[in-house]
Amino acid sequence: MKNKNLETILRKVGKGSLSVKTALELLGGMHFEDLGFAKVDHGRERRKGFPEVIFCQGKTPEQIKKIARSIIAHGSRLLGTRLSEQAWKAISADLPEATYGPVSRTMTYTPKGPRKKPAGSIAIVCAGTSDIPIAEEAAVTAEMLGSNVTRVYDAGVAGIHRLFAHKTTLDNARVVVVVAGMEGALASVVGGLVRVPVIAVPTSVGYGASFGGVAALLAMLNSCASGVTVVNIDNGFGAGYAASLINTSR
Question: What topology is assigned to 119-248 in CATH?
Answer without folding.
Answer: Rossmann fold (3.40.50)
